[in-house]
Design brief:
This is CCA tRNA nucleotidyltransferase. Keywords: Coiled coil, Magnesium, Metal-binding, Nucleotide-binding, Nucleotidyltransferase, Transferase, tRNA processing. Its cofactor is Mg(2+). By secondary structure, this protein is an alpha+beta fold. The chain folds into four domains: about 10-160, Beta Polymerase, domain 2 (2-Layer Sandwich); about 160-245, Hydrophobic Seed Protein (Orthogonal Bundle), CATH 1.10.110; about 265-415, no CATH class; about 420-475. The chain is built from 22 helices and 13 strands. A seven-stranded mixed β-sheet has the order 3-4-5-2-1-8-9.
């Protein structure tokens, strides 16, 4: 395929893609043509080729109905799945490629329904009209490799702008989720959204209420894991969409942070998110990013005016943890994500009790125990939470946290902190006290764990003496 207005780099990318996919895509295109049907690469697949980020997933569209698609591919595909067939999509695996073949269609929501109504179409151009943005409304006919771009998606890619093929009002009314997709693509691609689309998002923000929590969750999660989440989040807040899907975020906008008087909590939160991202080492960390975004959402509820013009937010981390758990659960996030994010929110201020290093080894052990498997993320969140413009203060906080991490590392080497257990296990406690399993053994185990946290490793003999002393003090033995 050759397109006259492609850059040399884009043309090479297109050529390389078709060299790679020709054995599969062209063969399938000929298979559909022989049965009297059209087939085209479409949407994100075509867009990503021009962005130089094509993978092994191919999106295709056809005039064939889903049942007909199944007939055509059943003897050709390595595997077929029909989980999306009610929406006109058949999944296919062939020679390492994942293909989704969707019948030409249009989607519209009934005002009272959360689910789209699917109506099949008969032309590629008609199908492209219903796409969310012009950059996703480009196609390549197979097997002839004819490039189809009726809405100027390629110029929009060059300009890094998101426009809807139809009027934005019609597009967002057909599927309100597209408003969130605009913010998501802004976060993923770093694109701006056309003013007309922004205006429609602002006017129609309430329409998002009919979309299911699961679909909203998926878009928000992709947004926050994008390369430019600030752009997407700012768009959500500025258009009023955030008030419907993540209301805790815009509520931060007018709350002045007592530690950072030069910025409000909303701006502070976005900076913390960006700084947390800067500390990632293995790609997007959704738990860390959500914790950074939600770490201060308890402040509006806990704001108090203090004497002297001060403002306090006592226990905002506890309130915020409860709010984060509630919001993420309502968005249908997995339980482990809900638990981990809310726990990080709860713990994010713990370091500030460290002062200039006054914690005992016992307190350090408890910090590690409470952080558990989240300790590395807690380190990153705590460091990211420093947004002061006072360089001296920022350097002092960094040095202090360096010292805490050094102490954790030293104690970890000495005591295997991550695996802290009492020096006497449950069986040994039963044997020493001459008791059967039960609540008393549980209390004894808890006492020995606290002793381990306070004293570190003291040896089996000393631990046994301590257990016996505890048992005598509690009237369990004479």
């Amino acid at each position: 395929m050759s397109v006259s207005n492609l850059s040399d780099t884009q043309q090479r990318a297109v050529t390389e893609l078709f060299r790679r996919i020709a054995p599969v895509a062209d063969e399938l295109g000929r298979l559909f043509a022989a049965r009297g049907h059209q087939l085209a690469l479409v949407g994100g697949t075509v867009r990503d080729v021009f962005l130089g980020r094509a993978g092994n997933d191919l999106d295709l569209t056809t005039d064939a109905r889903p049942e007909r698609v199944l007939e055509i591919v059943k003897d050709w595909a390595d595997a077929v799945w029909t989980v999306g067939i009610d929406f006109g999509t058949v999944g296919v695996r062939k020679a390492g490629w994942q293909l989704e073949i969707t019948t030409y269609r249009s989607e519209a929501y009934d005002p009272s329904s959360r689910k789209p109504e699917v109506a099949y179409g008969d032309s590629l151009e008609g199908d492209l009209t219903r796409r969310d943005f012009a950059i996703n409304a480009m196609a390549v006919r197979l097997p002839e490799h004819e490039f189809v771009d009726p809405y100027g998606g390629l110029p929009d890619l060059a300009a890094k702008v998101l426009r809807t093929p139809a009027s934005p009002e019609q597009s967002f009314d057909d599927d309100p989720l597209r408003m969130l997709r605009a913010a998501r693509f802004a976060a993923q691609l770093g694109f701006s959204v056309a003013p007309a689309a922004v205006a429609a998002m602002s006017a129609m923000a309430g329409r998002i209420e009919i979309v299911s929590a699961e679909r909203i969750r998926d878009e928000l999660d992709k947004l926050i894991c994008g390369s430019h989440p600030r752009a997407g989040l700012t768009l959500l807040v500025d258009t009023g969409l955030a008030a419907h899907v993540l209301p805790e975020l815009p509520k931060l906008r007018l709350e002045i942070d007592e530690h950072h008087r030069h910025k409000d909590v909303y701006e502070h939160t976005l900076i913390v998110l960006e700084q947390a991202i800067g500390l990632e080492t293995t790609g997007p960390d959704r738990v860390l990013r959500w914790a950074a975004l939600l770490h201060d959402i308890g402040k509006p509820k806990t704001r108090r005016n203090e004497p002297g013009g001060r403002v306090s937010f006592h226990h905002h981390e506890v309130v915020g943890a409860q709010m984060a758990k509630k919001r993420l659960a309502e968005l249908k996030f997995p339980k482990d994500v809900v638990s981990d994010v809310s726990r990080l929110v709860e713990l994010h201020l713990r370091f500030h009790g460290y002062g200039t290093g006054e914690w005992t080894d016992s307190a350090v052990r408890r910090y590690v125990r409470d952080g558990g498997h989240l300790l590395d993320r807690l380190h990153k969140l705590t460091r990211a939470d420093c947004t002061t413009r006072n360089r001296r203060k920022a350097a002092a906080l960094s040095r202090t946290y360096d010292q805490l991490e050094e102490r954790i590392s030293r104690l970890a080497e000495e005591e295997e902190l991550a695996k802290i257990r009492p020096e006497l296990d449950g069986n040994e406690i039963q044997e020493i006290l001459g008791l059967s399993p039960g609540p008393v053994i549980g209390r004894a185990y808890k006492h020995m764990l606290e002793l381990r946290m306070d004293e570190g490793l003291i040896g089996k003999e000393a631990a046994t003496e301590a257990l016996l002393a505890w048992a005598r003090d509690n009237g369990l033995i004479s």
